Amino acid sequence: MPHLTIQVTPNVSIAHEESLLKSINKALWDSGHFKQPAEIKTRIVPLETFLVGIEDDEQNNGFIFAHLKIMTGRDMDVRNQLAELLTVAIENTLSAAQSGRAALQICVEVEEISAVYHKKMLGS
Question: Are 65 and 12 a contacting pair, CB within 8 Å?
Fold first, then answer.
């Protein structure tokens, strides 16, 4: 665990998606809250259709929504710390690539996974 899903609007420029994911995974690993690097799972889910506001001219506003699901037992301070470090990692990786193309809003939510969660490793 943790699982991080990043939704991104098409008007946000991500030059190297793998580099973004690596910087995010490294930030999570460096936090010291996870036992093994292989526990950290991230993915980018591009959004094809989105609307910001109610007018067409507002589509120069893009956003990234990062949703981190972690196992139960971490207090609010830890969750806030993880949200902040993810925000900074995303900002540091993407801010230069935007070049004024779109105003970028970064949103991060950290929540505990449901108590009903099962996983099973297959193969090696």
Answer: no
**Residue 69 CB contacts under 8 Å (≥ 6 apart), including other chains:** 1, 2, 3, 4, 5, 111, 112, 113
Q: The tokens of 91 are what?
A: 């900002």
Residue-level length of the chain: 124
Three-class secondary structure assignment of the chain: CCEEEEEECCCCCCCCHHHHHHHHHHHHHHCCCCCCHHHCEEEEEECCCCCCCCCHHHHHEEEEEEEEEECCCCCHHHHHHHHHHHHHHHHHHHHHHHCCCCEEEEEEEEEECCCCCCCCCCCC
Tell me the whole-structure pTM to 2 decimals.
Answer: 0.86
| Tens-place pLDDT, residues 69-84 | 998 889 999 999 999 9
Contact criterion met (CB below 8 Å) for 20 and 96: no
